[in-house]
Amino acid sequence: MSVERQDRYIEALQRMIRIDTVSDPENGSCPENFVKFRELLWDLFPHIKDACEVMDFDGSVLMKWEGRDAKAAPVLFMNHYDVVPASGDWRYPPFSGELAEGKIWGRGALDNKGGLFAMLQAADELAAEGYAPERTIYFESACNEETLGQGSDQISSWLTGQGVRLDMVFDEGGDVLREPLSGVKGTFAMIGVAEKSIVNMKFTARSDGGHASTPGKDTPLVRLGKFMAYVDRHRVFDVELAPAIVEMLRRFAPYMGKKGRLLENAGKMRRPLGTLMPLLGPTANSLVTTTIAFTMTGGGEAVNVIPREAWVIGDMRCSHHQGKVDSIKEITKTANKFGIDVEITDESIESAVTDFNGRAFRLVEEAVAATLPYVDACAPFIMTGGSDARFFGRLCDQCIRFQPLLITDEQMESIHGVNECLDADNMVPAVDYYRYMLTHV
After folding, report:
1. Residues in CB range of 162: below 8 A, 6 or more apart
2. 329 and 385, same domain (yes or no)
3. Which of 241, 260, 410, 415 has the fewest CB atoms lying closer than 10 Å?
4. Quick one: three-class SS letters along the chain?
């Protein structure tokens, strides 16, 4: 590994992290910083900027690198540049880009400026070398992925209106993980082939109110409590092993010793494995069923008054086998048992599942093998979080969610948390990964 390259790459990423690009509509963002960040991109990556047609969509950026073959369907590479707020007690200041303990620290190091840097650095180097892609390559970087994704929604709609049909899409998502599930003794590139759709719901219980000195039974807060406890203790949603999860388990099998023998034929044991997975913890459970987390609550006017109305917000992540419509139907039916009204406050697009035998997945496997030698194998999985790739399902059947960064469990928890950081040793391999991808699409 070139020390000179790594040092140069670290310095560039530090400069990107030091510009606060928090997208936070409620508490306010700093528009000037978003402009400053885009200007920094053109300073850091002048060759690819000159090689591309650059379009601005209210701060979100689309770049078009014209290919030699006008008949070949274009591809899209994307990594957003906005970040979430950085509250809490950080080991190093969250917008310092501090290099310490072999890591680059700061909000966005992992989500998603590290990936954005590697993608644009690879493209800039190729453009500087005079490389011209065979097919047209688009680069997209949204400024509001962490909020509602308006930028990618707008860009994908615009491309659709231009008659563009993409052959492949490559976004952030999975990472390189050691022991991705308990008992799996290997290092895996976890490649997202889909993402759960998200439905935010408000559950409201109502009553005539009254004085706290003469409470009746099943007041609004009590009914909400019973409802949440029921959902916590019972299986409300269907459990099923999707083909992508079956394949994931099959690929884990050789790295699990004797226990792996059970998973070698996971496809023939979908029913018992579907029953077993929820018992392995929250992560395993989320891979096989719709989940709902109760995240916010409110109601009541005074300490001695029974509320006329109380509510709780639920964040539901819908499995592909049950889908949004049936998942909403099941949780509504359960809520109604407790006299609770349901309102959908927000919902995301449902993503299709990319074929793990398709060209896009295979290309990522090839790039990982060529540039990340410490990886034992690649495994498909279904993301429980959201990404902007969901908007590009409108014009592409193969949307992959993966960034070539080796991270620990602690670093995974730092995403949207405190002490977000990226190991400096990731920098050169990540750029090499994108160079491979850009020259082989």
Report:
1. none
2. no
3. 410
4. CCHHHHHHHHHHHHHHHCCCCECCCCCCCCHHHHHHHHHHHHHHCHHHHHHCEEEEECCEEEEEECCCCCCCCCEEEECCCCECCCCCCCCCCCCCCCEECCEEECCCCCCCHHHHHHHHHHHHHHHHCCCCCCCCEEEEECCCCCCCCHHHHHHHHHHHHCCCCCCEEEEEEEEEEECCCCCCCCEEEEEEEEECEEEEEEEEEECCCEECCCCCCCCHHHHHHHHHHHHHHCCCCCECCCHHHHHHHHHHHHHCHHHHHHCCCHHHHHHHHHHHHHHHCHHHHHCCECEEEEEEEEECCCCCEECCEEEEEEEEEECCCCHHHHHHHHHHHHHHHCCEEEEEEEECCCCCCCCCCCHHHHHHHHHHHHHCCCCCEEEEEEECCCCHHHHHHHCCCCEEEEEEEEECHHHHHHCCCCCCEEEHHHHHHHHHHHHHHHHHC
Is the distance from CB of 206 to CB of 303 less than 8 angstroms? no
Residue 68 is encoded by which pair of tokens? 């030699």
Q: Which domain holds residue 63?
A: 3-173+355-369+377-440
pLDDT of residue 27: 65
pLDDT attached to residue 284: 85
Same domain, 82 and 123: yes
Dig out the tokens for 1 from the structure: 């590994």
Contact 314, 320 (CB under 8 A): no
Flag whether 418 is in a domain. yes
Residue 185 counted as domain residue: no
Whether residue 296 is found in the same domain as residue 436: no
CATH number at residue 121: 3.40.630.10
Q: Would you say residue 180 lies in a domain?
A: no
Residue 150 within any structural domain of the chain = yes
Q: Report yes or no: 20 and 81 within 8 Å, Cβ to Cβ.
A: no
Could you tell me if 14 and 159 lie in one domain? yes
Please check whether residues 336 and 361 belong to one and the same domain. Answer: no
Q: Worst-scoring range by mean pLDDT, 25-34, 79-88, 320-329, 341-350?
A: 25-34
CA-based end-to-end distance of the chain:
25
Do 14 and 125 lie in a common domain? yes
Count of structural domains within the chain: 2
Residues 322 and 419 in one domain: no
Average pLDDT of the chain is 94
Q: What is the pLDDT of residues 9-58, one digit of tens each?
A: 999 999 999 999 999 766 656 889 999 999 999 999 999 999 999 999 99
Residue 365 and residue 340 share a domain: no
404/381 Cα distance (integer angstroms): 15
